[in-house]
Amino acid sequence: MRRPWISCNLAISADGKISDSARRPSDWTSVADKERLVRLRRGVDALLVGRGTLEADRMTLIVAGQQQQPLRCIVSRHGRLDPMHPLFHRDGGGIHLLATEVGHANEVRAPDGVVVHTGGLESFLEAMSVSHGVETMHCEGGGALVHALAVLDVIDELHLTIVGHLVIGGHASPTITGTAADFLPASRRFRLAEWSDGNNGECYVTWRREGR
Q1: What count of Cα atoms within 13 Å lies in the side-chain half-sphere of residue 85?
Q2: Parts of the chain with a pLDDT under 70
Q3: Domains in the chain, number
Q4: Which residues pair with 209 in a beta bridge?
Q5: CATH code of residue 58
Q6: pLDDT, tens digit, for every residue of 27-62?
Q7: Of 141, 171, 177, 185, whose CB has the highest number of CB atoms within 10 Å?
Q8: By residue range, what is the domain housing residue 39?
Q9: What gap in Å lies between CA 175 and CA 193, rounded to an integer?
Q10: Is the whole-model pTM more than 0.85?
């Protein structure tokens, strides 16, 4: 399978949660973490996010100060998007929507200008690589989408901000691979590549896939 090189970035609490069960916006990280988020976006060909995270965090998926904006890719089961969402009212890269549980693109009522794809995540990644020239893709959650990428074993680099001063708890609070009880088909092996202490209750960690 031809696919982009894929990195992921998430912030987690001390007990490994990426948000609470109410899916409130992830505003519990520092300014330094938000600056890191922007740095990790710079230079990639496409940004990837699940619909739930897009809506909870009101994301526009743009890179401030960058002339060439990355494509903005959204994964949704049914392709239902709010046309009033800020994403559709900010200039940026082209918008691609993958509706995974829809039979045909014509069944999706997407805002004007959105390119609709149907089918599985694997075929979408291949299409973005082959037909749209995407060589690097950066995913910003949520957990269900990162789980799907891990099942496919296509995560090349993983960035985490560990917020050591916060414990969220709760069985329904998602982790970086969602809340489902299913194990991955096999363990995914990474090596520690970078680590730094933010001196603000946060640690910034990067793992790279073994062999990369």
Answers
A1: 22
A2: 21-27, 180, 212
A3: 1
A4: 190
A5: 3.40.430.10
A6: 688 999 999 999 999 999 999 999 999 998 899 999
A7: 141
A8: 5-209
A9: 22
A10: yes
